[in-house]
Amino acid sequence: MTIESIVDANEKAQPDDEGCEIRLTRGMTAIVDKEDFERVNTIKWYASENGGKFYAANRNANYPESATTIYMHRFIMGIEDSFVRVDHKDGNGLNNRRYNLRVLSHSDNLMNRGRTKANKSGFKGVSPRRGKWFACIWVNGKTVGLGVYSTPEEAARIYDNAARKYRKDKAVLNFPTFEELI
């Protein structure tokens, strides 16, 4: 993609009560807080797909002498160190409001992923084992077995309890609301 192909739709971006929209290529928009709008809106952003998710990116934002790609969420948080991760709490790479962004270690960011494509149970932290369902969680680089259960839902609830205990507010849950656990 060349810089010339990046659509300059930012001029049409309008603030709203929920934040401000920054128009991107591919007919997409990113959302930013009103206090970040003017600074972010001076840059031409495009929709970049990475790992099946979309993010707002720019090839030359504040780095015109290099071929560096900068992502909007990193730009907003002021993070230039490539070893520092900025995560979207809700998993939406185009929701760049500050309440939705957090700085994480690489390890924490990896644990924040949902279930993988190879998942056979439909739940994070649950896999089949000898006709039953095994629940486990990664803690400090090691797998902690949580037991074997009759149903994948039961194993998923056990995983969720462990995720709340070990990951606290960073936990990705199978049943994110309390009502679903009952």
Largest sheet: 4 strands, mixed
**Topology as a string of helices (H) and strands (E):** EEEHEEEHEEEHEEEHH
Helix percentage: 10-25%
What is the spatial order of strands in the main beta sheet?
1-2-3-8
Outline type: elongated
Low-confidence stretches: 1-16
In words, what does this structure look like?
- With 182 residues, the chain is of the alpha+beta class.
- The chain has two domains: 3-104, no CATH class; 108-181, GCC-box Binding Domain, CATH 3.30.730.10.
- The chain has five helices and twelve strands.
- The strands form four sheets. It has a four-stranded mixed sheet.
- Strand 4 (46-50) and strand 5 (53-58) form a beta hairpin.
- The radius of gyration is 20 Å and the shape is elongated.
- The model is unreliable at 1-16 (pLDDT under 50).
Protein topology:
Blueprint: E1 15-16, E2 19-23, E3 29-32, H1 34-40, E4 46-50, E5 53-58, E6 70-71, H2 72-77, E7 85-88, E8 95-96, E9 101-104, H3 106-111, E10 126-129, E11 132-139, E12 142-149, H4 152-167, H5 178-181
Parallel strand pairs: 3-8
Antiparallel strand pairs: 1-2, 2-3, 4-5, 5-6, 7-9, 10-11, 11-12
